[in-house]
Specification:
14 helices; alpha+beta; globular
Length: 348
């Protein structure tokens, strides 16, 4: 891709002298598909990674899965989650699997230690090995199996790209993003599920329509509303203790939906009226060029975008100050040695 696709978004300085410069691209789009703001190339194609999870849950909801399985909003939220693997989150997933009638060993997401360090340390102390339900994507995979079971589709091949479930997921995103499926670049996520790359503009459009699907068919409007309501009502399940999505949604009281992905991807949705009375729903898609291994940059840039849009109050901004938009750099002795700050201005 051309170098101009990305522009400087975040600078780290040490002793008042610039040390590192991170590049990114971002776009803000309303539900009508109008470009509100962009920095870098709004048509840059990037994998959504876990930011795809709200759309990956839609086929289950559209198939009547909430009523069929008597799903709670907590259970739907964990299906949309990149959870931290806490004992409470895993207990919820285990109970959900029992309700659906599937077993943990049917999940094809793989195994990793919990993201929640205290949980991982406690498991190590008691000699407990991680299992698939500790994987941050186990809720998503449980939801996928639930949908396949409900629709009478094969369970052992639920991750195959040609499986009808995966085809429906792509169709749902295509509808919200106003982008043909043929224009999506397909890949495989860390949890082995199919994932896709789309232009930032279209991903932002999909998030805007998730927040306000008024122009979509009635069934899709209802499904988007249920997914959105579950995530906003239970941000503690969407991420976990101290996680960005959880903290941001908790601080903004239901006006803002946040779902991050790996490799420096972050998506946000603002509800109608979030900026001011009568303001339209907005979708925001952000990609950091270097993958943002510690996620400092994508989180700080997200808060700065919201600040420039006027989407967060002074009180909310104060609650989020430890995350961004500015970051104080300290060394191993706790001495402040530098700072990080956004270096972009949106043309609004």
């Amino acid at each position: 891709m051309p170098a101009s696709a990305y522009q400087p978004v975040f600078e780290l300085s040490r002793g008042g002298h610039p040390e590192s410069l991170h590049y990114g691209a971002l776009v803000v789009v309303n539900a009508a598909g109008q470009l509100v703001a962009a920095f870098g190339d709004s048509r840059l194609s990037a994998f959504l990674r876990s930011s795809a999870k709200p759309f990956q849950a839609l086929p289950l909801v559209l198939a009547g899965g909430i009523k069929h399985y008597d799903l709670s909003m907590q259970e739907l939220a964990i299906i949309c989650a990149s959870h931290s693997g806490t004992d409470a989150q895993v207990a919820l997933i285990s109970a959900l699997q029992a309700k659906i009638g599937i077993a943990e060993d049917q999940l094809q997401c793989g195994i990793h230690s919990p993201h929640h360090l205290p949980t991982a340390q406690a498991m190590e102390k008691r000699g407990e090995a991680a299992t698939p339900n500790r994987n941050n994507c186990s809720g998503k995979h449980t939801g996928m199996l639930a949908c396949a079971l409900l629709r009478g589709w094969p369970l052992d091949s639920y991750l195959d790209r040609q499986h009808p479930l995966q085809q429906e997921i792509l169709a749902c995103f295509s509808q919200l993003a106003e982008l043909p499926v043929s224009e999506l670049a397909l890949g495989t996520d860390g949890c082995s599920a199919p994932n896709w790359a789309a232009p930032l503009f279209n991903t932002a459009r999909a998030y805007a329509q998730l927040m306000d699907p008024a122009g979509l068919p009635a069934a899709m409007q209802a499904a988007c509303g249920q997914v959105r309501a579950a995530m906003l009502a239970h941000p503690d399940l969407v991420g976990g203790p101290g996680r960005f999505d959880t903290v941001l949604m908790g601080a903004t009281g239901g006006r803002l939906l946040s779902k991050g992905g790996a490799e420096g991807f972050q998506a946000l949705g603002l509800a109608p009226g979030a900026l001011k009375a009568g303001s339209p729903a907005l979708g925001i898609a952000i990609k950091i060029a270097d993958g943002d291994a510690r996620r400092w940059v994508s989180h700080a840039v997200s808060i700065e975008v919201l600040r420039q849009l006027g989407a967060i109050s002074a009180g909310e901004f104060a609650q989020l100050s430890e995350i961004g938009p500015e970051r104080q750099l300290t060394n191993w002795r706790g001495l402040q040695v530098g700072r990080g700050q956004p270096v972009f201005t949106l043309d609004l």
